[in-house]
Amino acid sequence: MKKTVPSLLKMKQDGTKISMVTAYDYTTASLVDASGIDTILVGDSLGMTMMGYPDTLSVTMDDMIHHTRCVTRGAENTFVIGDMPFLSYQTSIEDAVYNAGRFMKEGRAQAVKLEGGAKVCPHIRAITDASIPVCAHLGLTPQSLNAFGGFKVQGKNEKTARQLIEDAHAIEEAGAFMVVLECVPARLAALISKSLSIPTIGIGAGSGCDGQVLVYQDLLGMTPGGFKPKFVKVFADIGEQMKAGFRAYDEEVKSGAFPSEEHTFRIDDELMAKLESENHIEGSQA
Ligand code: KIV
Question: N or C end: fewer C-beta atoms under 10 angstroms in the chain?
Fold first, then answer.
């Protein structure tokens, strides 16, 4: 059964944890869908994981729509959230509604995500008024990297902790149906989760959140530089398995062991003899 906004809200009410993972393409989305994970985030983290940028700032709406389309084709039952990239909503409320609409119309997503608290509440309100569900994102919001001065845990002192609590209430009040809490101290995230009626999805925010999200390359050990943030757990070392598979393929191509008879198509011997004689080629036996 396809997950929906009401079914995700009910999971919070029932105390059932919500699983979320990023995906950026059809194949991965199909595998996530088959695994029973509840939600896919087509994160603007694709700027790093798929496009090789150092951060998310250069990702465009067209990049996001392209990847969201690929994912939604593979996500039969999984709820798909498209991540609004830098400057696709900060510029004006009109831009926010128009670009959120593109995720639905062209990307076929079920919801959008945007970063920020009280400042983006007018945008959240306008997008939800257009019947587009919005997931907010608080704490370490990577699009504000330069304002924060780096990837740092947020809400550690009284002022910023109070600000986070206020922002969480503001985005719920503005109509957000879910909120991602990124790199927030675990006890603060648990307090926020208990005080909201919408689900909180944590990443580096402890087990008191209503659900968890990880970037799929992180949880499958597929990070090229090997960097692993403190909040990441590697659940399967697919990166190592991929490297071993690529190495074995390379060796067999070079040694001629691949392709063998079982991977090869046959042709009639008489026809081949005729073709060899016409082309003055001897023994084209593979
Ligand atoms: O872009 C992304 O993948 C995200 C998650 C890390 C929450 O925003």
Answer: N
CB 41 within 8 A of CB 19: no
| Cα separation, 218 vs 39, whole angstroms | 17
What is the dihedral angle through the alpha carbons of 231, 235, 239, 240, rounded to the nearest 10 degrees?
120
DSSP letters for 21-56: EE--SHHHHHHHHHHT-SEEEE-TTHHHHTT--SSS
Cα 58 from Cα 231, distance rounded (Å) = 25
CA dist 250 and 264 (Å) reads 18
Least confident of 61-70, 148-157, 174-183: 148-157
Q: Which of 190, 146, 145, 144 is CA-nearest to residue 168?
A: 190
Please count the other Cβ atoms lying within 10 Å of the Cβ belonging to residue 161: 18
Residue to mutate (ligand 1; options 145, 200, 215; most atoms within 8 A of CB): 215
- Please tell me the distance between residue 43's alpha carbon and the centre of ligand 1 in angstroms: 5
**Dihedral of the CA atoms 80, 81, 85, 91 (nearest 10)?**
130
Over the stretch 211-222, which tens digit does the pLDDT of each residue have? 999 999 999 999
Can you name the residues that pair with 114 across neighbouring β-strands?
136
The torsion angles phi and psi of 12, rounded to 5 degrees, stand at: -65, -45
3-class state of residue 116 by DSSP: strand
Q: Which residues pair with 79 in a beta bridge?
A: 39
Going through the chain in order, the beta strands assigned E by DSSP cover 18-22, 39-42, 79-83, 111-115, 134-139, 178-182, 200-203, 211-214
Residue whose CA is at the smallest distance from ligand 1 atom 8: 43
